[in-house]
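To fix ideas, we reproduce below a protein record of this kind.
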Amino acid sequence: MLDTTGVPVPSLVLHRAGDRVVVPTRGKALAARIGGARFVALEGAQHLPYAGDVDALVAALVPFLGEGVPGRRAALSTRELEVAQLVTLGLTNGQIGRRLTIRRRTVDAHLEHIRAKLGVSSRAQVAAWAAANERTGGIRRGASA
């Protein structure tokens, strides 16, 4: 039996409602064993959450990843906004640097500043912030580029 009682982070358990490989009650049971976990049933029959209706997956993930993110409307420089938006594409720092014709170490520094301004600690949270704010028009540009 899986012991999940010591999971110290916010958890989201996603499961397709019509999954033919693992019944949804198993997903609910897993979420119940993780203190404070949230269970979300997605429409569809595919076993893998990212197969099928991707919009429903994103709709469940973005709010979860952005939860408790202070400074959601933090002022980022133009370059920091570009970096944050490229993070949403899943690019590495090296790939972002090549796209923007800057050094990887410069991208590292931009991400450090972005995380500090947003009060977050992970790339996933930066991506969630950028995706949510791009969609709602909540991104503000700072004074410097």
